[in-house]
Amino acid sequence: MRRFFLLFFLLIVIVPVFFVRADELEDVTKALESLRKDLNAKESNYQQLNSRLNDIKKRVNNLEVEIGKKEAEVKKGEEALDYQKNLLNERARSYYKNINKNSLNLLTVLTSDNLSESLRGFFYQQSLVDQDKNTIIKVVLYIKNLEDIKRDLETEKLGLSSLKQEIDSQSKILAGQISQTRTQIAQLSARQQDLIAQKQASLNISRSASTLGRCDSDLTNGRDPGFSPRFAMFTYGVPNRVGLNQYGAKGRAEAGQNYETILRAYYNFDEMKKAENIQIKVDGHNTYSLEDYVKRIYEVPESWHIEVLKAQAIAARSYALAYTNNGAGSICDSENCQVFHDDPKTGAWDQAVRETEGLTMYQGGSPIKAWYSSTHGGYVFSSGEIGWSGTSWTKHANDFDGSIGSFADLSSRAYDRDSPWFYCDWGSRGEYNKTAWLKSDELADIVNIILLVKNDPSTRDHLYQVDKSNPAGTDTWDFEKVKSELRSRGINPFSSISDASVGADFGSGRSSSVNFSGDGGNASFSASEFKDWFNLRAPSNIQIVGPLFNVEKR
Fold first, then answer.
1. What secondary structure letter does DSSP report for 345?
2. Facing residues of 234 across strands?
3. H helices of 228-299, where?
4. 149 contacts: CB under 8 Å, gap ≥ 6
5. Range of the domain at 125
6. For residue range 154-187, what is the model confidence (pLDDT) as tens digits?
7. Which has the least CB within 10 A, 132, 256, 423, 454?
8. CA–CA separation, 214 vs 209, rounded Å?
9. What total number of domains does the chain contain?
10. What pTM value is reported for the model?
11. Cα(467)–Cα(448) distance, rounded to whole angstroms?
12. 277 and 401 both lie in a single domain
């Protein structure tokens, strides 16, 4: 009897689960239908649609788990079914037997001399009949409800199967449309990147710490562009962030690190050993012994800490050997290779070269191509991360002391924080006092073109910078035209930006998102997406030149 009531209680629990799941199936179906309609619309935002589809997939997976649990419950119910049927047969026989006895007992009561005793017998027999009757009813309900649940379960499984097929179909459609969009972007990528490269080249950003050129930061030069509010995008470091960070090495040396510790912070190498009897041919100059060549390298000021000079001498030696294949080829004399002059340096640099004589970094028996630049902005990147071929001797590493959780932390803890290239808004406009500040409506224009091209990729050829000729051979849409195009597509444009912020992943050293608010509401973009379109649309040669950047408002 206890087993029966346990099973009957299980039945009561199982039944309402179906109704909850049926509602969920209906909700998922409606969500999928909404997604299908949006997929057919040209203005679909594929990232949002993909997120919605993934959410539907998760909900369907949850449904599948629940249906699996229900199948297990039904299986348990079926295992108990034989017992229930036997119980039904036993109770049915008992019922008919006891009800017949009870009829006889009623006659006995009516004819008995001992009425009290006869009544007790009659009511006892009646209670047995009632127990049998109740048990029969419960068993019949159990069997009926179990059959109903099995039937509903099959309906649910068919509905789930149909949903999964539809999801697979919509996933393929969405993947195809995303692929098509990416293909469209890829077809224009080479031209866009070439334009950005040309624009960046006009900035004349120096790679070498010894170069006289410096970042003309609008936070420190004090020049007023003549308008307010104003915004500017500030990049951490210079474009090449691979290998030795010259200003970072300076900070490390001043913190007490020796040249080997400094080099291992920036490169992967097996050993340092002496390279001897190698001649280096310099394009446009003579051929020198390796040591005489390194004495003529002008990459860092010789007033710096001696450990920095030693690290730089070893890096220069390693680079020259790798570049020339141990002297078999020649090397250029500019920043494209290493800055070289005919006259040897003296003083501390000569000392550093002599005290590290012949020392070269090797990996796998070969000298490593030890790239370096003036300022990395607090992070070291591997060659593969900046678009070059991947190499085993370059690495991704933090270049700061302690931990970083904000831009303020980075500015106070990065080893290269004293570099004039550490935090710079690159580019300038003569008409605004040679600054890189943008007006509120100019920043709003950049936000608007991103909104437009995300909505309609076919507009991209009209969205280059307005102060230069259109590289696609068509007309460039100005601020008002872009706003008009947005309105025609049902999108509210920005006329001005009131606030902007940048989110960053301080573990990887990359900005992650850029967020805006203004009269058009709020807008957010991935940092890489914003950077690409900013660099194509921003006026003059104003640029973001690296993966980690921030926005300033004054």
1. P
2. 550
3. 246-254, 259-266, 290-294
4. 11, 14, 15, 18, 70, 74, 77
5. 2-187
6. 777 777 777 777 777 767 666 665 555 544 443 4
7. 256
8. 9
9. 3
10. 0.68
11. 17
12. yes
